[in-house]
Design a protein that fits this description.
Layout: E1 2-9, E2 22-24, E3 28-30, H1 35-40, E4 50-54, E5 57-65, E6 70-74, H2 80-93, E7 97-101, E8 108-113, E9 121-126, H3 127-135, E10 141-146, E11 150-155, H4 161-187, H5 197-218, H6 226-252, H7 258-279, H8 283-304, H9 309-336
Parallel strand pairs: 6-7
Antiparallel strand pairs: 1-5, 2-3, 4-5, 7-11, 8-9, 10-11
Helix pairs in contact: 2-5, 4-5, 4-6, 4-7, 5-6, 6-9, 7-8, 7-9, 8-9
Length: 337
Amino acid sequence: MTNPVSLYIRDLEKQQMKRRLIKQGVDTLTVTLPKSWITANNLRSGDEVDIAEQDNTLQIACEKRLLEKRKTIDISGLSNPIVWRKFIGAYRTGYDEIKIIFESQNKEYDIVYSSIAHMERRLKMKTMDMLQDMVYRFVGMEITDQQQNFCIVKDLGGVSKDQFDDALRRIFLLLMSMVGDLQQAMQENNPEMLTGMAGTDTNIDRFTDYCLRCLNRKGYHRFSKTPTIYSYILTLELVGDELKKMAAHLSSQPLSNRRFKHILIERNKLIRSLYELHYAYKVPVIIAIFDKNAALTLETDGEFKKASNGDLEAAHHIKKVSALITQLLQLQIELES
């Protein structure tokens, strides 16, 4: 498993160390690399590094064999939702091995499953059943050892650039699937078509967590843009959450305002436009999406004032999706800058 480790040499940045250029031969200048960086990455004479130029910045990157990262989580006394959040944090951070300590295998946890149709299933699970159910949700992770008061969870899948790219594309495709289901359900007045959207959103969460894990382990291929793409992916996840909430509402309370239906359908089209923009950046497309989103926002605000009580919640989610689209546009511009 490898990780890009980058050294930035920038002019006039006080926090960066200085190096003198050394003339070698007729037209060649060399610069020494920090000993601490060489040691940390186990580099030797003759090893290859990747060099990328960008304006007055030179990025030197190498691939090093990562030491296996281990984390211990003690879930004693914690509820199921808190256990999940602690595990998500460790998974996203990029730990290869997570040791989970628990009080007893016989402890029962309260589990709540909910669906788009607002039907909740409540059940109790013993410790290992709960942990098995949780670990299954995370790409590449498996329980490899189980003892009386702990278990070991390991990453058996690894991370790579290709897997990251595939997971990100799947997030987009799943969002467009949700959009398509919403649109078809409204056009056919068939709320039953919305019942599968909770599962689709769960898959978006799975691939989101995996993408964030990849970024924390390896960084983005344009290393300086890692925080930007991290925020971009989190925002895509929020779009999925809003679409799921909208589906939950519409499954029991169909829209009565025809203009809201039109606004929702048109705004959903912008999700596909964002997908196409991400893989084929064009300034005219940015402008078109921004203008269309702004116009739909004004129309939503106008309809919001005269909406029935039943339509208000849907309008609220429509407005939140609009704000998230604006955030995605801004982040996309930053990715291309």
